[in-house]
Amino acid sequence: MGRNLVIVESPSKAKTIKKYLGSNYIIKSSVGHVIDLPKSKLGIDLDNNFEPRYITVRGKASILKEIKTAYKKSSKVFLATDPDREGEAIAWHLKNALGLEDDAVCRIAFNEITKASIKEAIKHPVVINQDLVDAQQARRVLDRIVGYKLSPLLWKKVKKGLSAGRVQSVALQIIIDREKEIDAFDEKEYWTIEATFSLKDGTQFKGDLLKFKGKKLVMNNEESAQKIIDVILKETPIIDSIVEKEKKKNPLPPFITSTIQQRAAQSLNFTSRKTMQIAQQLYEGVDLGKENGGLVGLITYMRTDSTRISSVAKEEAKEFLLKNYGQEYIPEKPRYYKMGNKAQDAHEAIRPTSIFNTPEKIKNFLSKDQFKLYQLIWKRFLSSEMPSAIYDQVTIEIFCGEYLFKSIGSKLKFDGFLKVMIETKGEDKWLPIINKDDGIAIDELEKNQHFTQPPPRFTEASLIKQLESLGIGRPSTYATILDTITRRGYVVKEEKQFFTTELGLLVGDLLKKYFEDIINVKFTSKLENDLDLIAEGKREWHNTVKEFYEPFSVLLEHAEAEIEKITLEKEPDEITDVICEKCGRNMVIKTGRYGKFLACPGFPECRNAKPLVEKIGVPCPECNGEIVVKRSKKGRVFYGCDQYPECEVSFWNKPVNEKCPECGSLLMEKGNFLVCSNEGCKVKKKREEKESEE
Questions:
Q1: CA atoms of 154 and 148, how far apart (whole Å)
Q2: Co-location of 197 and 298 in the same domain
Q3: N or C: which end of the chain has fewer CB within 10 A?
Q4: For residue 150, which of 545, 524, 563, 476 has the smallest C-alpha distance?
Q5: Chain-centre distance of CA 424, in angstroms?
Q6: Do 194 and 170 sit in the same domain of this protein?
Q7: pTM of the model
């Protein structure tokens, strides 16, 4: 007989594995699923216990034929698809396509694509885990039923091209509910008082007014704040207590799927989809050149909910720390992190396959984005194996009559894990050396106005955190969920925040009205638990689908009868004074995939179109042009000179018609502040709120 056959999903993964296994192994890639439900129809036999009707995926017949041919020439087959439920299902389909017995010992899985890991997996093949397969089948069938039954309802009653999903619709509802919370929010005014105290030698420090007669102090207007100031100014401040103590700051656990998506969104401005795509590349292997071993899998498997780290990786991290930082940067006891109740702990947290592949060492072999994500993973893992940072903290309580002020100062004593996670260090806020008997005086009392803030709109990071905390979906599906509701036009992202569109509100409210019993957080979370029980062999998958489908079909029938056809009002196009040079008509403003543009109303006879120039009233600082709104190839808004390419001035943040008082560059809007557009200048000031003219 011939050589051993190893089947994986990805061609990139196949290349990396081939290097480790040698000439006695044939490596074939299925390029994802080769057998799946049909795209053109439901593919579920609703009258026969919800049995799926699988077919060979269109375009994959030749791949499957090639795999079968290789199998006939092989002495043994190893199904090495990804180590998760979907990977188990792909292996199961391949097993059936090749005609293997149910008890065939052919399944291998590895958490990292390294020589040692793959060699070890080859030595210990197992039978396919049918419970994992059934859990994946149940999820697939449930999602197919909802998608292929609800989406046509929306096409019929609202408009074509819409979609609904078991999890995506709940995610949309979460965003809608937050939008409604914000709309209903009642802003409240409140005031705070900060004191500037001084010692006899003139040294100053600040303290915040917190309590009156032992109770939290609330000031609702300026008048009440001023009355309190008038009383305090008549009092002599007395130091009541000085408490000194050490405070520890612990490192965060290594990344899991959800936290890496959150952190990459916050730090790198990556979408969830982009994060997972780049992580997949790092996992499958990057060519580091002959001197570094060629194709190398750089991180462990990126779809995981476990914070567990292997003893081998812990020892390697310890060796690296000892060599590069010294004994004091090794914790007294190894660190172990708690996992969520829903964690499956199937494999390790996301970490580098070798801590000695430092980001700087391999930087030249990585793309810019690969480097950014790898550095994030590398630092997070190493820091998670380091000691806590230690701060000296001093808390001073000062009484002015019956009013209590508190001042807290801290200073870094030992950086610990912050040695690696430099960006989280923060600034010291230290207090002068003070004794309890020292006399102090009040130099100034400053009152400040504030307003309570509504709950923030969701970003990708905060929505993923919310979905995870509610037990909605799986971390590996978050990227697809967010991508779908954005592509369907249910939400838009502005300055990283999700805003619901009119279409999103319409669809969300419609689904909530007619399917609230099953498309809601509680029901969806319970279904996730049921899927976990199936994976553990504690629940039968057909019964789970049946329990869902029976009430769903009743609600669907009711909605079909009750919902009347909804006609979406189409706003008339805005007519401009720009004349079409091809036919003489006044051009109108249209909205396309990348925003607004000018188009001739004579379409399809006249197909003239051009970019819409949105002026913002800011002259170009380099030429006689004007700064206008533009969009990048990926649809991101930026601001540039209308004389491009002659003038290449551009800004990612919106500039204002105001110059920096320090260097003369334009100021730009950034949140509630104006910042200098000159990167070397640190000028930052509060934006002035403009009163509405309406």
A1: 11
A2: no
A3: C
A4: 563
A5: 19
A6: no
A7: 0.78
Give the CATH number of the domain where residue 198 resides. 2.70.20.10
pLDDT digits (tens, 9 = 90+) for 439-477: 899 999 999 999 999 999 999 999 999 999 998 988 888
Percent of the chain with pLDDT over 70: 95
pLDDT at 592: 64
Which one is catalytic: 71, 301, 490, 514? Answer: 301
Does residue 613 surpass a pLDDT of 90? no
**Judgement on whether residues 68 and 121 belong to the same structural domain of the protein:** yes
CA distance 593 to 120: 49
Domain count, the chain: 5
Looking at the fold, whether 578 and 653 belong to one and the same domain comes out as: yes
Structure tokens at 611: 């970019």
Residue 229 has pLDDT above 90, yes or no: yes
Work out the pLDDT band at 593, boundaries 50, 70, 90: low
In a domain, 141, yes or no: no
- Domain CATH number, residue 87: 3.40.50.140
CA distance 678 to 659: 11
**Of 194, 141, 80, 79, which is closest to residue 448 (Cα–Cα)?**
194
What angle do helix axes 130-157 and 85-98 make, rounded to 10 degrees?
Answer: 100
Whether pLDDT at 343 is above 60: no
Q: Does some domain include residue 458? A: no
Percent of the chain at pLDDT > 90 equals 72
State the pLDDT confidence band at 633, using cuts at 50, 70 and 90: low
Which segment of 57-66, 178-187, 349-358 scores lowest on mean pLDDT?
A: 178-187
Mean pLDDT for the chain overall: 90
Q: Tell whether 482 is covered by a domain.
A: yes
Residues 84, 55 within the same domain: yes
Full domain range(s) for residue 41: 4-128
Mean of the pLDDT values across residues 574-583? Answer: 88
Same domain, 474 and 532: yes
| 112 belongs to a structural domain | yes
Residues 246 and 395 in one domain: yes
Nearest 5°: the CA angle 156, 162, 167 is 115
Which spans in 200-349 are helix H?
222-232, 257-268, 272-284, 311-324
- Could you tell me the CA-to-CA distances from 10 to 28, 72, 93, 283, 296 in Å, in that order? 9, 21, 16, 11, 15
Residue partners of 58: CB distance under 8 A and separation at least 6 = 39
Among candidate residues 273, 311, 309, the one with its CA nearest the CA of residue 299? 309
Q: How far apart are CA 193 and CA 208, in angstroms?
A: 6
3-state secondary structure of 523: helix
Are both 91 and 23 inside the same structural domain? Answer: yes
